[in-house]
Amino acid sequence: MTLYMDYQSPSVQFSFDVNNSTLFRKDARNYINVLSNKQLNTLENTSLLDIFLSTGNVVEPHYHQNAAELVYCISGAAIVSIINPFTNELLHFPITPGQVANVPQGWWHYEIASVDNTHLLAIFDAPVPEVILGSDILRLTPANVLAHTYCLNEAAVKQTLAPINDSVFIGPPRDCNPSQVHGSMAGKPQPYPAYTQQPNHGQHNPIGYQLPAQQYYYTQPYPSQTY
Questions:
Q1: Which of 92, 107, 168, 225 could bond 217 through an S-S bridge, CB–CB 3.0 to 4.6 Å?
Q2: Among 63, 53, 171, which residue's Cα sits nearest to residue 120?
């Protein structure tokens, strides 16, 4: 698609300060800036998210219904996790400065910062990166539908999901108390080992995949610090 633009118009834009376009801000160390053709009207099929994270913070599980995403690590370190819908495998790709992870259009994924001062650039092949967030799916789907569909206790579902009353974007929320969280993420989550050689357990990696920094996680990697 080619964007029609009158390049002689006085309103034509060729530059923009992304620092002035905040999509979401959790705090001073965790926020997302956005650039699309809504901010820069000469952009065509390109847009980006400028992402800043501290250790253990997560760009929540989500998918982009209109674009593929290339995640480039500028500084720090992160783990990009995706579900391959063709193999039903959950794959994890650690990236450090200069490394990328690619997320095809419509694939469920999330990013976890491994260290403080992590800076990621997410680049999209669409003029505006549309998104469907896991938090919105959970909070907007009626509890009785979830309970009936998955044979769950409706009261327990309501109690569990009650704190999710808005789009999260970067989790955990600011008011989260890890000591009140039940499950494997409570307290100080323990990291799974990183293998220096690719394990052979029937795991199928994307074509052309190379081990970034000689690490590949075939189990769920979690940060070792509290939120």
A1: 92
A2: 53
Give the Cα separation of 53 and 77 in Å (integer). Answer: 10
pLDDT digits (tens, 9 = 90+) for 76-93: 999 999 999 999 999 999
33-72 core/surface letters (b: 16 or more CB in 10 A; e: else): bbbbbebbbebeeebbbbbbbbbbbbbbbbbbeebebebb
Provide DSSP, 123-179: EESSSS---EEHHHHHHHS-HHHHHHHHT--HHHHHHHHTT--S--SEES-TT--GG
Give the position of tokens 């990696």. Answer: 205
Please tell me the distance from the alpha carbon of residue 67 to that of residue 84, in angstroms, as a whole number: 16
The amino acid sitting at 27 is D
Q: What is the pTM of this model?
A: 0.79
CA 16 to chain centre: 24
Q: What is the DSSP letter of 41?
A: T
